[in-house]
Design goal:
heterotetramer, A: 378 residues, alpha/beta, five-stranded parallel beta sheet, two-stranded antiparallel ribbon, 13 helices, 7 strands, 8% strand, B: 353 residues, 14 strands, 34% helix, disordered N terminus, disordered C terminus, binds thiamine diphosphate, binds magnesium ion
């Protein structure tokens, strides 16, 4: 007996239920089933998103953000997937998905609270149905499966979008999340942004799977690949998967093929592990430009609209710049973190006597003008 | 989300007291919580048809259905992580980890999410979760079935940690844990599952965070919790023969810690021994000894001593009795509390006691 | 766009690279490619294995074992998979795989050291190339991937057999092990005994995958199903996968379909969660009887051989009974655990000063005849 | 498998001393270990081409190839678990966890296997593993990037736990860790990665399990390790102005614990403050305070105090300076060491000091 060779990443003509990546915008048609208003809105959000990335990067250089993981190049994923959600749906972002959170309607300054180093989290999760940015990789996918399960148990129809990077699919939690969702037929869309790298590690050191979408098969759920730089394709794919989830069809795994154009974060040096040519090639597939061209070809976009969207983005950026140019305001919802004594307020529903003692110690220190650990921390 | 322990007190439908095992008392607590609050959901491995390997969930799936009492895949991180998502949606999940060592795969979810979620979201996402973990040894279990892992949990801010030592507390503390808006690591002493006691489900639930003085005495204080409580009570009884009247303080709640009750006792007796079965080095006993010493230094006739498991992996069944704190080892520690110094120091510190 | 339904457990005519379960012994042919001597040896080991299960169960009832997870009904998996290994290969058993360890040549009493409650582990892992029985589920699969990787790095050609139950495939570690092995093309055969249950939980609450073998696809390795009650099929499948691994072909996932005839352990009550009829049906597929019949049909087995094997098994059982009827001998390799002071010997290469203090305390207690924690522990 | 620290001392090829950062010293240690022993293999996320997010493995993959210095998939349990298998085969894996909180997914492998494997197999399967974990805060990291998690590890029998506080120790302790036949959790204080000091790679490696007295003084002892060492030295300097001469003991090795050096110091000074940045409750400081008190009770003028992080999840960058023990908080604790009692107790306990 011989063991048959497995399907490999490069093998042609897969007979597996995972097809070629869905692409819609490269012809004039392809997007005709999508409402024109939606298409234009997708584009507008891409423009906003690109500008947001630029502004956040600039703020980081100025020391206004502690760190910023940019989504430049991945805007179509962030915008397309989130706009596909209905109001009642929930979003579980991972640490890079600031733009997804912004697209969901969260105030830009609140989106950046964590990265500003001000407090761990900025927005009201219930108001937006958006969980906090998850830093420990893949852990949020399990939360997503749990929230979806809870909605099912309560008889509520909604879908949950769980976002994750390609590298994070290696974590055990990813496996457990897909399995729980599949066994429970829970309404989750697992959306993997395969941007080719996990910090410095390329995807072929992360997995030997033919595609990440193939992982769906092992859980008994559909797996779909989509061109992650095609905002319409991302939108349409996630919409279909979310509809299916809401209708009781269970979870779907979506793999979006994209590229992280910037370094991992401002602190990273991408030249250590990848070539300029590789980046160049992906810049030619820029998701904003591609959508703009597509809409122009389809006659849905004119110069005035482009200008209007550009201006709107400039306004958003200007406001963000202004709001983040000052030190955090302890009394605003986006800035309450700067109040030292608030450190003890939310550890428990009611502070323990031990915490009250510690709070009193800090209050005495502050009152006495004691120096904190280091005026300038390394 | 704002239910408090008090809301969950049972309205007496004819007061009833019964003699039950601790496992049964826990079963009753889960039953009553499920019956009273439809947000309560039980999840775990084999908790459904089987009723759990210790039968603590016996009959509950039959009574409440498999959506309220759900068998999960074998994936502890997945179990706890999905419970986090459920809690975000307003449910009150009660998770069972089958044995202490099998809670370790869920450690990241516990420390990085369960413990921190309320704080990071400034109260927006409380975690009204109960994590039931059968803990400790003395049941002849093979490796990985007898860990006493409380030190990991008590050191993690954001968690409450509770360990009942009596049948009544097993019921009361579990009801209070499920009613709590904070996550509670609920440590069930395996060794006591089959111990029997009186249960009155109409009794007032124990106030969260309070220790109980189980026996009064003036010579020294034994500070303990969970599976070591009966051993300490036995030691206190045996100590009589040696002329010592030992006070026994049962912490019940490890976090929050009841400094008041503990320190009041130690100030009265002037001597203390901490007893638990987990390894001693950097075990919870170290915190107890350190904080009691900080707060009661001038009342102490002797250093606070610790009687604990050794600093070794939990032994195999044939040897576990040597590892677990027993009556003789406790009495030996009591004997080392520098009784000869009493007269001298009494003179020295005079009015302070 | 619509999401295509995934392949489901019950779907007919899968177009996936995972075929029907390999079965060899149900016809007269089918095993002709396997050496006759091997076939007879497989049978002899099945007989031994069945007797071992019976004896261990009896010893448990007499209180000589702390616990025993029986492999009755699964003997073909345990015997077939292990006999397929070469001397240089390694075996990573999980807690149920005592019979696999026995089949690898470990002394029966040493196999049972853990379950006897005497010490945590009985045999020399290097002498037999058998890792300790792993109690924390799925953790051993990662060790297996690591050892296989180490052999690769050292340029040694060997295969590693990692055994695991169906339920344990839900653990994150299973996912991580398959992924590490696949990415590294490491020589591992992951052998899942799908016996239908994880203690009380049936497989359909554990996974929604079409089969467990399908999980291989998501890692880029071959997945094979085999009739786990057909010892020749198990042998042949694992042999092929191990050959492939040793030759540098990388890992394989094998799913063996079998059934746990006894309760989970002696402490379990299987009537709480399954019907007698289900057990009956599987008893009709008894792996020992099926192999006996097959060998008789092929003319490879006669009454004298049957009798000889039965006697050999009786002898093994008798010896085991005798050796385990006494208390552990602290000086034998299978019984050194009973020496209380040895508790401190192997925590570190050299005991710390703290451990020496604790050892001295215990020594004083023992010398003074102090009572240990409880003369009779619950 | 029986290599000892001594075997790995460098034969001086022309003695050389250089001023380097701690990150660089660690890099040199890894380099020298890789060069000297072909069983040493490095594994972790981004340790190859990138050289690690803190550049501790900079240049090593280029020098030794990607089989010796391997980028792994992002799966910490998988990383540590495969390292266990590699150690079983006779290799000496050195694992990097990218940040402290990202070691939690590997907790089960660490506690249930790495720590126990030697013991359960009665020495047959030693675990000569080094687990490098950048630990602690003070670098402006967002949540989950600044945990000080040593309490979890020191409580786990079977592990050695080490935390360098100087550049020379960073090199020496890491070489000793890799040479050790036992698993070592090697905690690298992130805050000190860019601190500079003298490195002499030909110097004798520190004896495993030994603390170092970094500054002598007679008034009180500061007991500390890792990232808090420079803070304590600064506090000791500042204390001079108040008339206190503080002795500073740097533990270096948390497990095994150097009772001798610590207790000798405390017996000399009669007062002690333990300083670390992890949360105080059931933190490692509790063990230090408890064991010092047990062993030095009659020498103590005051309870051993602890200056630690608060019992809260690690704060965001804007607030972390309030959480971390600083010079003033240490001096305040020193001031609370009951200086007024000296004369009375000196009289009382007379010859004991
Ligand atoms: C459990 C855990 N391990 C490690 C890290 C450190 N880390 C942060 S981002 C990252 C790479 C993630 O790669 P990928 O999932 O592909 O997402 P991308 O950065 O490409 O968006 C790593 C290793 C972490 N945050 N959590
Ligand atoms: C990490 C972990 N979680 C839980 C357990 C408790 N446990 C022991 S066996 C078992 C069921 C295993 O089922 P399966 O993998 O199908 O193996 P089988 O018992 O059928 O051989 C469980 C849940 C464990 N040993 N380890
Ligand atoms: Mg990526
Ligand atoms: Mg099974």
């Amino acid at each position: 007996m011989d063991i048959e060779e497995p399907v490999t990443m490069n093998q042609e003509g897969l007979s597996l239920p995972v097809g070629d990546p869905v692409t819609l915008i490269d012809g004039a048609a392809g997007t005709e089933t999508i409402d024109a208003g939606v298409l234009v809105e997708l584009y507008r959000r891409l423009v906003l998103g690109r500008r947001f990335n630029q502004q956040a990067t600039a703020l980081t250089k100025q020391g206004r953000l502690a760190v910023y993981p940019s989504t430049t190049g991945q805007e179509a994923c962030q915008v397309g997937a989130v706009l596909a959600l209905a109001d009642e749906d929930w979003l579980f972002p991972t640490y890079r998905d600031t733009l997804a959170v912004l697209t969901r309607g969260v105030d830009p300054a609140e989106v950046l609270t964590l990265l500003r180093g001000d407090w761990h989290h900025g927005w009201d999760p219930h108001a937006h149905r958006v969980a906090p940015l998850a830093t420990p990789l893949a852990t949020q996918t399990v939360h997503a499966a749990g929230l979806a399960r809870a909605a099912q148990l309560r008889g509520d129809s909604l879908a949950v979008l769980a976002m994750i990077g390609d590298g994070a699919t290696s974590e055990g939690d990813f496996h457990e999340a897909l399995n729980f969702a599949a066994v429970g037929r829970s309404p989750v869309v697992f959306f993997v942004q395969n941007n080719g790298y996990a910090i410095s590690v390329p995807i072929d050191k992360q997995t030997a799977a033919p595609t990440l979408a193939h992982k769906a098969i092992g859980y008994g759920m559909p797996g779909v690949r989509v061109d992650g730089n095609d905002v319409a394709a991302v939108y349409e794919t996630v919409r279909a998967a979310a509809d299916r989830a809401r209708a009781g069809g269970g979870p779907t795994l979506v793999e979006a093929l994209t590229y992280r154009v910037d370094a991992h974060t401002n602190a990273d040096d991408a030249t250590r592990y990848r070539d300029a040519e590789e980046v160049e090639a992906w810049l030619r597939r820029d998701p904003v430009v591609r959508m703009e061209n597509h809409l122009r070809v389809r006659g849905l976009l004119d110069e005035a609209m482009v200008e209007e969207f550009r201006e709107g983005a400039e306004r958003m950026a200007g406001e963000l710049r202004a709001r983040l140019s000052t030190d955090p305001d302890p009394d605003s919802s986006a800035g309450a973190g700067a109040d030292a004594l608030s450190l003890f307020d939310h550890v428990y529903a009611r502070p323990t006597s031990q915490l009250l003692e510690q709070r009193a110690l800090l209050a005495r220190e502050l009152a006495a003008g004691k120096r904190a650990a280091k005026e300038a921390i390394a | 989300m704002t239910a408090t322990a008090a809301d969950h007190r049972i309205t007496p439908a004819g007061a009833r007291t019964e003699t039950v095992t601790m496992a049964r008392a826990l079963n009753r607590a889960l039953h009553d919580a499920l019956a009273e609050d439809d947000r309560v959901h039980l999840m775990g491995e084999d908790i459904g048809a089987l009723g759990g390997v210790f039968r603590v969930t016996d009959g509950l799936a039959a009574r409440f259905g498999d959506e309220r009492v759900a068998d999960t895949p074998i994936a502890e991180s997945g179990i706890l992580g999905t419970a986090v998502g459920m809690a975000m949606y307003g449910l009150r999940p009660v998770v069972e980890m089958q044995f202490d060592a099998f809670a370790y795969p869920a450690f990241e979810q516990l420390v990085s999410h369960v413990a921190k979620m309320r704080n990071r979201t400034r109260g927006a996402l409380p975690m009204p979760l109960t994590i039931r973990i059968p803990y400790g040894g003395g049941i002849g279990g093979v490796e990985h079935h007898s860990d006493a892992s409380e030190a990991y949990y008590v050191h993690t801010p954001g968690l409450h940690v509770v360990a009942p030592g009596t049948v009544a507390d097993a019921y009361g503390l579990l009801r209070a844990a499920i009613a709590s808006d904070d996550p509670v690591v609920f440590l069930e002493p395996k060794r006591l599952y089959w111990s029997k006691g009186e249960l009155d489900r109409t009794a007032r639930l124990p106030e969260p965070g309070t220790a109980a003085v189980r026996r009064t005495g003036s010579s020294a204080t034994l500070i303990t919790y969970g599976s070591s409580l009966p051993v300490c009570l036995e030691a206190a009884e045996a100590a009589r023969a040696e002329g010592w009247e030992l006070e026994v303080v049962d912490l019940r709640s490890l976090v929050p810690f009841d400094d008041e009750t503990v320190c009041a006792s130690v100030r009265r007796t002037g001597r203390a021994v901490v007893v638990h079965e987990a390894s001693g080095f950097a075990g919870f006993g170290a915190e107890i000894a350190a904080r009691v010493t900080e707060r009661c230094f001038h009342y102490l006739e002797a250093p606070v001593l610790r009687v604990t498991g050794f600093d070794i992996p939990y032994p195999p069944p044939a040897l576990e009795r040597h590892h677990l704190p027993g009556v003789d080892r406790i009495l030996d520690a009591v004997a080392r509390l520098q009784w000869e110094s009493t007269w001298e120091s009494r003179t020295r510190s005079g009015g302070s006691r």
